[in-house]
Write a structure and sequence with these properties.
The structure is a homodimer of 210-residue chains.
Chain A: H1 4-26, H2 35-42, H3 56-83, H4 88-102, H5 104-114, H6 119-144, H7 148-170, H8 174-209
Helix pairs in contact in A: 1-2, 1-5, 3-4, 3-5, 3-6, 4-7, 4-8, 5-6, 5-7, 6-7, 7-8
Chain A binds a DNA duplex (30 and 30 nucleotides) through residues 1-2, 4-5, 8-9, 12, 34-36, 44-52, 55-56.
Chain lengths: 210, 210
DNA sequence: AAATTGAGCGAACACATGTTCACTGAATGC
DNA sequence: GCATTCAGTGAACATGTGTTCGCTCAATTT
């Protein structure tokens, strides 16, 4: 009942996932990922791959899920930073950029499969991004008292800007990445100001109608 | 001197490009594009491919260039619509969404290769997007009298939002696409308001400092 | 009219791919 | 202690890949 066997199996499963990620980070994307090369790096025979995954696609979807998990951990981190006080915008963007820096392979995977060629993959990634947006909407509604509609508009814009900047950060060196981070922060502040102004306009119109 | 021969060559070259685009739009991206299948669809032998392109990569870069060209044509259209009067934001977003609708394959290619695995490709796409941003900056500076710095911040944010929305539009039906278009317009208005507010803040601080 | 050019072709090569199959041998259940 | 399970294996298969080579034969040049 010690589960020596099960433990070993889990271990090589992790080895496969890790091998796949290593090969992603390099030069080739998921599309050009080879079962045989992954197996080789994981230290098993190509045929043994099928003891762990039915398909290459199943491996791929697993990678996306792992990426999503890491992304949600990031969200939690970010919220902790906010609880400590300080600018929510700066904290979020900084944390996000750190995530991109420390999990390049995973973020690149998410990014590529978001507009990739497998519908299943696209849906999986979209689902992860929607989680991200939903959390942000809740924050804007609960903590900043925005209307749900305006909160959704704003959150969606923020997520689009941040993910897009993250994509650019992948190819950037440390200095350029710093510039990108500051630029993104400034942009989110513009958006926040715009949302605030929009809320005021709506309120004014409301009282004028009374 | 009639150039019957040269004309024929150009014709099959176009056939190759067209064949490649057809196969992109379907289910497979550039990465999984096969020389043999492209040649088959173009109606020539696989070996004849090399009479027109040195590599598959050369074909791919040609596709990106063609996409960029179409994108710049889009920009011109958009400016014409603005000249006719009417909201610049609405005109731009609408034109952009039409482009995505009518050139799905091309836009998907640009999108994929933007975060793809070939550095050459990424640079080519980035260059195209930068053209797009630069035009927008000029407009904001010349027509709206923004400072160059704030104009760049704003233009960059706008391009990020619009491209990201375009990506989502790829998978959407007509109704959802309409919703996306309206959402994007609303978001750009928020950004515009935010930029305006930011400009006012800067001005106030300036005069206070005097 | 003769010589040259060059787009298109068919055969062949060397190779990598995903997947199947019957197998071995250690961990597990009884 | 014996029977069973099952992760890992090596050989083999069928197929698709990019690319080379020498050839044909119509358009072009001389």
């Amino acid at each position: 009942m010690a589960g020596v066997r099960a433990a070993q199996k889990e271990k090589t499963r992790r080895a496969l996932i890790q091998a796949a990620m290593n090969q992603l980070s390099a030069e080739h994307g998921y599309a050009s990922l080879s079962l045989r090369e992954v197996a080789r790096e994981a230290g098993i025979a190509p045929t043994s791959f099928y003891r762990h995954f039915q398909n290459m696609e199943e491996l791929g979807l697993t990678l996306v899920d792992e990426g999503g998990l890491t992304l949600r951990q990031l969200l939690r981190q970010s919220r902790q930073q906010i609880a400590k006080g300080g600018s929510i915008i700066r904290a979020s963007v900084t944390t996000f950029m750190e995530f991109v820096t420390n999990n390049t392979a995973i973020f690149r995977l998410l990014l590529q499969e978001k507009s990739g060629n497998s519908r299943d993959f696209r849906l999986a990634v979209t689902r992860e991004v929607e989680h991200f947006t939903a959390e942000l909407v809740d924050y804007l509604v609960d903590e900043q008292q925005f209307d749900r509609e305006l909160a959704e508009l704003q959150a969606d814009a923020i997520v689009r800007i941040v993910f897009s900047a993250g994509a650019d950060a992948l190819d950037a060196d440390a200095k350029e990445r710093q510039r990108l981070t500051e630029q993104t922060i400034a942009q989110l502040r513009v958006v926040a100001r715009g949302a605030e102004a929009t809320r005021q306009v709506a309120k004014t119109r409301e009282s004028a109608a009374l």
